[in-house]
Amino acid sequence: MNAAAAIGELTGREVVEVRRLAGGDTASAFAARLSDGTEVFAKTSPAMPGAVEAEAAGLRWLAEPGVVPVPEVRGSNADWLVIEHVPESAPTRRAAEQLGAGLARLHAAGAPAFGSAPPGGPADAWIGLAPMRNEPTDDWPTFYARHRVEPYVRSARDSGALDDSTARLVDQVCAELDRLVPDEPPARLHGDLWSGNVHWSDDGAWLIDPAAHGGHRETDLAMLHLFGCPQLDRVIAAYEEVTPLAAGWRERIGLHQLFPLLVHTVLFGGGYARQVAQAARNALR
Questions:
Q1: Residues contacting residue 75 through CB under 8 Å, at least 6 positions apart
Q2: Where is 80: in which H helix or E strand?
Q3: Helix, strand, or coil here: 48?
């Protein structure tokens, strides 16, 4: 099915105009204008089974009142996702503070378990181009080691992207997670909260492209630190005004970054393996 036909079927509106958008490494993306004047964004990921269903379920789960805004899902099926279009603008201090406070409230909305998928979402989801398993687990250290770190260590080591000494270092971190990370209840996470998935608009910061699941709230904040985020100090300050972070959270950033760094090592190799080693060493200090 072509884009115009899929968008029309899912929204129940005639598509007046549709154009393909550049960029994106995981999906084909389109902007469309409907007969009632509404602007929408659509994407399809045929090479990634379950990806659209996971994203749609994640967006619906994150759409709690009074938290960080997410685009409304206008329609979805196994192949296509159609969401509202949100115009883009420059980051502002006010938007950064709203993002921090909203993230704190989103995390506090909670999840049934560590590793739980969004309601209606598949257990087998994706983060970027990498498969990601959501499996409800009694405690965060077991979930993080078993379903977020160890599968990518194996894959990176098997491909030669990660050497044995670094793999052993990461294994040591996993063995000591109970000691390294404070016990907290499951938080409702965006799950892939690098700066590119924060969409700045005139009415604040929006969250897009989630890999949502139940996890540790420090993970989302560590992702914001991974590639930088505009006005991040203001985001964190506003977060802590709503819900203070546990002592030593900055020293645990590298620990929480092991997962995305390992994903990047599997997908892209290069210098990410060195960053994995450094993050593991920092976690064990």
A1: 7, 9, 10, 11, 12, 81, 82
A2: strand 80-84
A3: coil
Distances (CA, A) of 247 to 108, 173, 240, 250: 18, 19, 12, 8
pLDDT in tens, the chain (285 residues): 799 999 999 999 999 999 999 865 567 899 999 999 999 999 998 889 999 999 999 999 999 999 999 999 999 999 999 999 999 999 999 999 999 999 999 999 999 999 999 999 999 999 989 999 999 999 999 999 999 999 999 999 999 999 999 999 999 999 999 999 999 999 999 999 999 999 999 989 999 999 999 999 999 999 999 999 999 999 999 999 999 999 999 999 999 999 999 999 999 987 999 999 999 999 998
Cα–Cα dist 261/106, whole Å: 24
- Rounded to an integer, what distance in angstroms lies between the CA atom of residue 71 and that of residue 41? 9
| Stretch (H or E) spanning 19 | strand 15-21
How far is Cα 70 from Cα 61, in angstroms, rounded to an integer? Answer: 10
Q: Does the model's pTM come out above 0.90?
A: yes
Contact 88, 215 (CB under 8 A): no
